[in-house]
Write a structure and sequence with these properties.
By secondary structure, this protein is of the alpha/beta class. Helices cover about 30% and strands about 25% of the residues. It is built from 7 helices and 10 strands. The chain is elongated.
């Protein structure tokens, strides 16, 4: 059902976003809280971001936004203030307007850390391999370091992007960070944990080019 333009909205900003299941559970959560708001998908290009964020900053009926690929790092540079984890990671996944200013937060760090704690009961192993070097990857690297993983390898198609992530985050994390190209993975030690954060398969369905069917 289309969103009612007369009701307050929360947007999901990204490109693409048509595949996202977020409205189904986010709208259920809003309803549970007694908020007559609509959570809607908002496809937006990098060039459109400043105008879209200006509309959120102005208040109006847009009460905030979530941010997904590929805009998490770009949005971190466009908001007026960053929360602690967003500042540490250099990426934003939640935007909240307050008093004519936009505050950017990163809940990916807490969310991934909590998920991993529940899934493996703290036994994360000695070495973790993170596939991808975007905004989500940054949050995962920080969460892994906070969980005490001593060695984190970041692999990306463009090794320069992985090297930039390592150079920016590495000094303050207390973990050994290493950057490699995706086509050089055969040369690394087998990891205890692999985290996939690339956009491979995003927006596609089974049978379509680019879809990645994860092992059952």
């Amino acid at each position: 059902m289309p969103a009612d333009p007369s009701r307050p909205q929360v947007w999901l900003l990204g490109m693409p976003v048509k595949h996202s299941l977020s409205p189904s559970f986010q709208n259920a959560g809003l309803h549970h809280l007694g908020l007559d708001w609509d959570y809607t998908l908002r496809p937006v290009s990098r060039d459109e971001l400043p105008d879209v964020l200006a509309r959120i900053r102005a208040g109006d009926l847009v009460r905030g936004a979530n941010v997904t690929v590929p805009h998490k790092e770009a949005v971190a540079e466009l908001v007026d203030e960053l929360g602690e984890d967003a500042r540490c990671v250099g990426a934003v996944n939640t935007v909240v307007p307050r008093g004519g200013r936009l505050i950017g937060y990163n809940t990916d760090v807490f969310g991934f850390q909590r998920l991993l704690e529940e899934a493996v009961v703290g036994q994360t192993g000695r070495c973790a391999l993170v596939l991808g070097a975007g905004g989500a990857s940054r949050a995962v690297v920080v969460a892994l370091a906070r969980l005490g993983v001593p060695w984190i390898v970041v692999a990306n198609r463009s090794v320069g992007r992985a090297e930039a992530l390592v150079a920016e985050l590495g000094p303050g994390l207390g973990a050994r960070l290493e950057a490699v190209a995706l086509d050089q993975l055969t040369g690394i030690q087998p990891p205890d944990l692999i985290v996939h954060t690339t956009s491979l398969g995003v927006g596609t369905s089974p049978g379509e080019p680019g879809f990645m069917d994860l092992p059952k």
